Amino acid sequence: MFSHRQLRLVDIMYVTRTLHFARNNHVLRMKFVLLVPSFEEFDILSFQVETNSDAGKFIMKSYFENYESLHDSSFEDFMAHQLSSSLCQGIPDNWNVGVRLSVRELSLVGEGSHRHLSSSIRLQIGAASIPKLPAHLCEVIVIQRLPLGVFADPFELQNPHKHKAFRDIAVFGDTNLELPSFQSNRSAVEFHIDAGFNILFMQNNGTEFNLLLPLHARYQPLDESGYSVVEIGEPDMLMRCSVEGKQHKQSCLFMSPPNEKAKSTSATVAWKIPAGMKAHAGFVSVITFVTALLSTLSIVYASMFWSGTKVSKT
Amino acid sequence: MEVRYTDVDYLVFSDAASLMASGQSPYKRTTYRYSPLLAFLLIPNSFTSRCWGKFLFSASDLFVGLFIRIILKQRKVPDDLCTYSMLIWLFNPFTFTIGTRGNCEPIVCAMILWIIICLNNGNVVQAAFWYGLIVHFRIYPIIYALPIIIFLDPRFFRSGTKPLLSDWTSDQGKARQINSELTDKCVVCDALKSTFTRSRILFGLISGTVFLLCTGFFFRLYGWEFLHEALLYHLTRTDPRHNFSIYFYHIYLNYERELSVLEKLISFLPQFIVQLVLILCFAKDLVFCFFVQTVAFVAFNKVITAQYFVWFFCLLPLILPWSNMKLKWKGLCCILLWMGAQTHWLLWGYLLEFKGKNIFLQLWMASLLFLAANTFILIVLIRHHNYGPVFRQHTDLKTTKTT
Predict the structure, then answer these.
(1) Half-sphere exposure of A152 toward its Cβ, with a 13 Å CA cutoff?
(2) What SMART domains does the record point to (chain A) (predicted)?
């Protein structure tokens, strides 16, 4: 399709569309070579687009196959032990890829019970490693664990118009939209974002992905102050690439080095949600029933007096 | 904030319909709590146009307008009054948006009005069939069962003869009709004496059979999930989330603990008493009875959402020709009072949901005001209604006076 020649902007756009076409239409193998003269480190990239049998596999799905509900301790165990076996190790050349994923910004946008969690993820890869990476198909996986008091609507996330930048989004855990938080369990949202193109054109300070996740507040447990504060922490991030193994394709994971993963407490966002006050319980119930009673009596009286119904004693 | 025009419920129906089209259970779609019949009706959404359902609901809306005219013409209401009554339904912005937003209530209203037409024509079998179907589809019409049974008075419903409808013109200017049959033995006893008449048994049997057949058929197809979601959920529903009902805050504050049997009974009692009294007083004037029952049912329900208002909006045009109330100024006051109470509630609801302020107490008080407004308007309508039985006696019959 392409021969060795200089790329123009229109060629880059064609490549992007072709990549999406290949992915969406499950094209098995497409190989082309790009010449990118402005790139500092190299000028020839070989890119292979292949379907990856693990590409759609959700990490949270594996988590819920092993655990019943979402707890921070179980999740951290899972990430530490279960996923360590899938880390990219023993790759020929034994190169240290130097992948770093970090949250540049985390904030809550909007007011009231329906808001958006805005997060900005930075991906950095060691410059020496990038030429070796394009032989693989890579995606960035972001897992946003949600606290008990909020939920994400899976049907809203499936809306294709809003979320075409993502390869896949899914919600795991308790997705009941109606129950209050004290009768619910936690949930998590997993995003899969195509990283190939970003890696291709990565600058020195890395590349950024912006996520906007619509969230809704559940009804909170009663609180004396009238508000309940819910804290949402940073997401967990990793990169998954498909590797040409000896016999067949497989995928492996890149995670940020452990010392980088220590989350600072300032990286959480707090959401103040109105909650009922226990002090109201007594008089609210009494006045509710008294009002219902008064209403009933008025209607009964009016009906009997004005329906033309005359009780005659004969 | 984007305001979506299409109701969330429409997306739920459409998803359930596409699940059904691919041979799966519509209950795989969470929050689908309707009869599979609705999903079945919306199957063309998947392969013709996504708006098929909306066309269906809007067409039902137009049928309701037509049925209003038919019913009023059956009672020989003058043309101008007929037209005004139809306009009240067709041009009510609340009701015509309901269908176009994708809500299924217009179908329910059309079926209820068709049942009234059949009963007015003396067609008990057809009325019973549609009644069984509508109770399966949407449980609330079960409140009309007793008034219909009382309405099927053997003095009017005799085999071989069509019942005689009393005309609108003869009802006007008459002194308030005294229901002379009501003695200290009460109308229930009177009804019980002649309970087992042909038309009553026929109605009960046919509607019961249709209901059980539909329920049984879908139970066979979809199992307990159908029973839980489509039937039991509605009977036991207590939603702590804010809605127009006066009970919402009480439910939220007590959600963490199990309510005692006494508390559950106390909250059910007002509903039960009001329904019983309204039926006993107004059953002979069937449409008015349906109307007041529906208003009261919605007002005293544990959960009230805006779509429930359509249930009595379709009956309002049918009772207005018999009302002494003038639009200026009593009628206008009632309209403004009802809309004002609703808007007041909505303002507090907006502050809670979209501004995140804790105004639960104020919202609860707004719902108390809304109940007060509904009660007041109901009483005013009862006060100004020209009550009269729908049927009149055949001239060769003697009126029996019970002593």
Answers:
(1) 27
(2) PIG-X (SM00780)
